[in-house]
Specification:
Helices cover about 35% and strands about 15% of the residues. It has about 550 residues and is of the alpha/beta class. The chain folds into two domains: about 5-290, Rossmann fold; about 305-545, Nucleotidyltransferase, domain 5 (2-Layer Sandwich). The strands form two sheets. It has an eleven-stranded mixed β-sheet, with helices on both faces. Strands 3-4-2-5-6-1-7 form a seven-stranded mixed β-sheet, sandwiched between helices. It starts with 10 loop residues before the first helix and ends in a 7-residue tail after the last strand. Mean pLDDT is about 80; it is low at about 1-5, about 340-355, about 510-520 and about 530-550.
């Protein structure tokens, strides 16, 4: 009978163990795959690109490339098992002397994961491979704390607890520091903020210590929102459904390219996800699934102000709850453009510059004048991308070819002025949105972003702002608009404020041609302009009346 001694173990198995000793400490992702059975017995490991992305970011922390990391990933995607359990155990295979500190909103969750970490370290799988590096220092019965023979330790606590005093670490990990049920309470958030700003950072044993926050978003003022405002954090944001952008370290990229593509369709089949979205509601979906929380009540712009139009079979747009139908292509169309520099144009990391560049946004607008002489502003199309300079001009030209704008209002602040000049030379009907007076200024910026959006609220609150009901960018657009000024970006808000300001300058039903000074343009553009004038004035707002309320 075998006594379990090494001599009774098949040689090929010994070879595999020796290989693991060398290879597993080199790759967190490989360690996770190999060790998963220890924390999830009988449950096969289901790999996915987002798990490797999480591992790659954590490995960058281990290797000293990152010191502050935020991970925002939807729930039930394996993030806590990797970040709070397997990563620290893997780090000990490389350096067993590292002290870890963990905190969660509930002590039971923090203790659960500490027991799981101990389970991994004590397992035969782990000890066979790394027991020579990671042994336990005597008898240890505390659930919240254990250490190894190399003076490495793992300590778990709850947020706000005073029992962390006297403990420190080189790795400080926050795993869901806020209770979803209390996230909407300003009092609770302020208490959390106080602890996160004063108590938790003081636990770092060294300036070289690293901090990791893992969280599903709950509110724009949650721990993630707090740290992002402070700056200096690498942000890994992976939404459940692709919306055109994710946040991650420069060398790591979200592989999805199709709008609506699911993070992991094996874990979240389409039917299951749709049912989950119904149960969570729009607010829960925005925060917990898409990682871009929006306030229930809205910000400056209220959600109920935003109206959604349908495109009818004949191509007309139905607005004002069916009161009017009109052909957008026969009405005044214009574009507002907000150009943004890429990171390399901003100076890049280490130069005191912004490293999370904004988006370049083009908005296509059509203005319809009601029987009462009030403008209705309809958003026809939207482009929101991070672009290099040459791509901006190329895509703006394509946008113009599609919608045939009478005018394109473009910001001419800083580097944008050169793009404006390039666009003019290409024959685009550009006019300045600028702080200066006179000249070719279409709209003069005479207030800050907040002031411009406040002015726009009159038209929005009056129910005269309409957007397409089924646009792929709809959710992201509404979220940014309704979280302003607390959203991470405000590029779409800028083009909306400019669009409203220009629309409100249009009074009554036009009967004359557009006589505003036209820039020099190409023969092709001149011909388009001549054709528009032959077919009728570009500012002639004839409407098709479907029905009139009594008394009109």
């Amino acid at each position: 009978m075998s006594d379990g001694s090494p001599t009774d173990i098949p040689k090929e198995f010994l070879d595999l163990v020796e290989i693991d000793k060398v290879l597993l400490p080199q790759s967190l992702h490989e360690f996770v795959k190999a060790t998963w059975h220890v924390i999830e017995p009988g449950v096969p490991f289901k790999d996915n690109w987002h798990l490797k992305m999480i591992c790659d970011h954590l490995q960058a922390v281990t290797e000293g490339k990152l010191k502050r990391l935020i991970i925002n990933v939807p729930p039930r995607t394996g993030k806590s098992s990797i970040v709070s359990v397997l990563w620290p155990c893997w780090e000990w295979t490389r350096n067993a002397s590292i002290p870890f500190m963990f905190a969660s909103y509930a002590l039971r969750l923090a203790l659960r994961d500490n027991l799981r970490r101990r389970q991994v370290v004590e397992s035969k799988f782990y000890q066979d491979r790394f027991g020579g590096k990671v042994g336990f220092a005597g008898e240890q019965r505390e659930k919240a704390y254990f250490r190894n023979t190399a003076q490495g330790s793992m300590f778990a606590s709850s947020l706000g607890s005073s029992n962390i005093l006297g403990f420190g670490g080189l790795r400080l990990v926050l795993d869901d520091p806020q209770d979803p049920t209390g996230a909407e309470s300003e009092v609770v958030r302020e208490s959390v903020t106080e602890w996160l700003c004063r108590t938790w950072p003081s636990r770092k044993d060294s300036p070289e210590a690293a901090e990791v926050l893992i969280q599903q978003r709950l509110h724009e003022g949650d721990a993630t929102g707090l740290y992002l405002k402070q700056g200096g954090w690498t942000h890994l944001k992976v939404p459940m459904e692709w919306e055109g952008d994710s946040e991650c370290a420069p060398e790591v990229a979200d592989p999805r390219r199709n709008l609506g593509e699911i993070l992991d369709s094996t874990r979240f089949p389409k039917d299951f996800l749709e049912d989950l979205k119904k149960r969570l509601g729009p607010y829960g979906v925005a925060g917990q699934l898409q990682q871009r929380p929006a306030p229930m009540e809205g910000g400056i712009v209220k959600r109920e102000w935003i109206k959604h139009y349908d495109v009818l079979k004949d191509g007309r747009i139905s607005v004002m709850d069916g009161l009017y139908e009109y052909d957008a292509m026969s009405h005044f169309r214009f574009c507002t453009a907000d150009l943004a520099a890429r990171e390399k144009e901003l100076g890049g990391p280490g130069r005191g510059q912004k490293t999370d560049p904004d988006y370049t946004v083009f908005a296509a607008w059509s203005v319809f004048i009601t029987a009462q002489g009030l403008p209705i502003l309809t958003l026809l199309d939207l482009v929101r991308e991070r672009m290099e300079g040459p791509d901006i001009l190329k895509k703006l030209k394509a946008f113009h070819r599609r919608w045939d704008f009478s005018v394109i209002g473009m910001e001419t602040i800083s580097f944008q002025l050169s793009m404006f000049q390039f666009a003019r030379r290409e024959g685009l009907p550009v006019r300045e949105i600028s702080t200066r007076r006179g000249g070719d200024v279409l709209y003069r910026i005479d207030t800050d972003k907040m002031g411009r959006m406040m002015r726009a609220t009159n038209l929005l609150a009056d129910g005269r702002f309409w957007i397409p009901a089924y646009a792929s960018w709809l959710d992201a657009f509404e979220s940014e608009l309704c979280t302003f000024p607390n959203a991470a970006h405000d590029d779409m808000c800028d083009v909306v404020a400019y669009g409203v300001a220009i629309a409100e300058r249009i009074k009554g039903r036009g009967g004359t041609k557009d006589t505003s000074p036209a820039p020099s343009s190409s023969p092709e553009e001149e011909e388009r302009r001549a054709e528009r004038n032959r077919s009728g004035p570009p500012t002639a707002w004839d409407f098709i009346e479907v029905k009139r309320p009594p008394g009109w």
